[in-house]
Amino acid sequence: MANDNFSKIQHCLDDYMEQRGKQVIDDMEANSELARQGLLDDDQEWPGRPLRELLARLRDSDMLPRNVKQVLGTWKIKHSRALQVRQQIFLF
């Protein structure tokens, strides 16, 4: 997947989290929103599967963004700019 395509996905998920007042969402919630926005179809039988497969490919190619982690089999996606804010606080 091209970097600008994933940038669109990341931007969409950041906007979604800002609208909902969330800092972290899971793969099923993220894939549902991406499908609603027309960026990544969801699997009706296995909700979240397309995003999980994409994230696994990114992880395996060592291109997984720092704000995405797999915790006990579930992918957790943090707001991408939350990491930047924390880093700036530590610099002062």
Brief write-up:
By secondary structure, this protein is an alpha+beta fold. The protein has four helices and three strands; from the N terminus they run αβααββα.
Topology:
Layout: H1 3-20, E1 24-26, H2 27-36, H3 49-60, E2 68-71, E3 74-78, H4 80-91
Antiparallel strand pairs: 1-3, 2-3
Helix pairs in contact: 2-3
* Global mean pLDDT: 88
Structural class per helix/strand content?
Answer: alpha+beta
According to DSSP, the number of beta strands is 3
Which ranges are low-confidence, i.e. pLDDT below 50, for 5 or more consecutive residues? none
Please indicate the percent range of residues in DSSP E strands (runs of 2 or more): 5-15%
N to C succession of SSEs: HEHHEEH
Count of discrete alpha- or pi-helical segments spanning 4 or more residues: 4
| Overall shape | globular
Q: What's the helical proportion of residues? A: 55-70%
> How do the strands line up in the largest sheet?
1-3-2
Largest sheet: 3 strands, antiparallel
Q: What is the gyration radius calculated from CA atoms?
A: 13 Å
Distance between the termini: 37 Å
